[in-house]
Structures are given as structure tokens and as C-alpha cells.
Amino acid sequence: MSVRVSAMSVLPPVRRDRIIAQLPQYFKKEAALHTKDDFNNKVRTACQEQRTGTVGFKISKVIVVGDLAVGKTCLINRFCKDAFDKNYKATIGVDFEMERFEVLGVPFSLQLWDTAGQERFKCIASTYYRGAQVVIIAFDVNDVASLGHVRQWLEDALKENDPTAVQLFLVGTKKDLSSPAQYSRIEQDALKLAQEMRAEYWAVSSLTGENVKEFFFRVASLAFETNVLAELEKSGSRQIGDVVRINSTSNKLYATSKKKHPNCCQ
Ligand SMILES: Nc1nc2c(ncn2[C@@H]2O[C@H](COP(=O)(O)OP(=O)(O)OP(=O)(O)O)[C@@H](O)[C@H]2O)c(=O)[nH]1
Ligand SMILES: [Mg+2]
Description:
Elements: E1 19-20, H1 41-48, E2 59-66, H2 72-81, E3 94-103, E4 106-115, H3 119-126, E5 134-140, H4 144-148, H5 150-159, E6 167-173, H6 180-197, E7 200-203, H7 212-247, H8 250-260
Parallel strand pairs: 1-3, 2-4, 2-5, 5-6, 6-7
Antiparallel strand pairs: 3-4
The structure holds guanosine-5'-triphosphate and magnesium ion.
Guanosine-5'-triphosphate binds at residues 68-74, 85-88, 90-91, 116-118, 173-174, 176-177, 205-207.
């Protein structure tokens, strides 16, 4: 009897409530990263044919930033532990949680970095911003000032990352505390800002759980889709290179490399 041990087999199976088979929809059409109904066709096919390369082993880094006490820790705890603490305990520096998903049959993990909003811990927290694929900026829908500080959080997060490669989300928290009229006033400003920043907008409540799971499923799905598309592009260009190599004589290869690097030592 042979025993196969792989990296995946030593991990516990993905929780049944972390399985994503359909693309979760955006919250607001006017501020969505994209408005398609379903996963990209190429992505679906690649998953069916198990051509997703390293994506199944990939862990995407997600950072959650925003003013102190807007509810970043509560948001992560509601999703990861289905828990809510009404007492405020400031995050000191950073904390992180791992969440494993299965998207279109492929394992996919998010590393959720919960950062400190307090000014005195910002310096430590910002050293963890680097390498984020997803940036979530949280503000409290009952606190206009926290929305006003979003641009600064964005600037700080993008200093450490490639702005063209980051997927951005703007999340209004504590929706349970605002009346519909109050909420709709701040939502107008938040939507405008999200459009300017090219972020996807969501409003959630960690107290009631409203939209929390939907939001993280959307984050996981869009991050996954982007990773598979990048992987397909990479393997596409690798194939082109392979064809050139097989069909070329060694002389031609030498000639090509000389042309590419005319100043190289020979
Ligand atoms: N009513 C209500 N209260 C919330 C909600 N989310 C968070 N809170 C409360 O807001 C306070 C701050 O929440 P935290 O999650 O600790 O805030 P934080 O953004 O992590 O704060 P820092 O770690 O200091 O940056 C706590 O007292 C929470 O109970 C929510 O959805 N509804
Ligand atoms: Mg916190």
C-alpha cells in the first residue's frame, strides 16, 4: 500500500461553508471592481481542466486598514470566528488570520492582516503593508471623519505596494447603528470616493453579521480570479518561449540572445 503525502493532504479539508461555486455579486453596481454575473470563462475552464498552476498553493495577502475603532478587528472576527465583542480592545501593531476557501474546486487561501488604527502603532503596522494583493479600507458609516481619512490610508497602503496590482475595497462598518436616512447620506459620499479610488464599495455590520460573509466571499473570488488569469497569462507566454526553443537551431538561439543583449560579455 502506498501512502501519498502532499502539501494539501496534511491540511484539514476546507470548511463546507467556505466553498464558492458561483461568483458572489457586488454590493453596489456603481462602485464595483467588475459587474459581470459570473467568473471569467477562461478561469472556469482552467479550473475544470485543472490548469490553475500554483494558484491552489497560493496564499493571498489582504490588509485591513482604517481609523482606530472603526471595527476592523470585529469585521475579521465576525467572518473568521463568527464572534462579536462589544468591548473595544485596540489592536497593537498587527494580527492575522488565515482563511481557506475552495473556489471552483481549487483550494485558495487568504491571509487577513488586521492592522492597528491608533496613531502610535501605525509605524509598526505599516511595515506589514508590503506584498498585499488586496487592500481593504474600513470607515465607520456613523463617523464622517473616518471617511475623510480614507485617502490618507490609501496613500500609506499604496506606498508599500504596486498600485496597479492591488485590488481595493472600501468598507463602511457598523451599519446597524445608523438610521436609513443617515446611512444614505454617507453612502453617497462613500460611493463617490470609491469610484474615484477605483475601489469596490460595501457596507456591513459585524454586530448583526449583515453582508460580512458576502463581502469576504467577494474578496476571495475576485482575488482568485485575478490570480488564475495571471497564471494563465504566465503559462501562455511560457508556451510561446518553448516553441521558439524547440524549433530553433542552437545558432539561431545564440544569435537571438546576442541581439537581445548586445553589450553582454561573450
Ligand atoms: N454596533 C456595532 N459596534 C461595532 C461594530 N463593529 C465594531 N463595533 C465596536 O466598535 C469598537 C471598535 O471595534 P474594533 O473592531 O476593535 O475596532 P478596530 O478598527 O479594530 O480598532 P483598532 O484596533 O484600534 O484600530 C468595539 O467596541 C466594537 O464592539 C458593528 O458592526 N456594530
Ligand atoms: Mg483592531
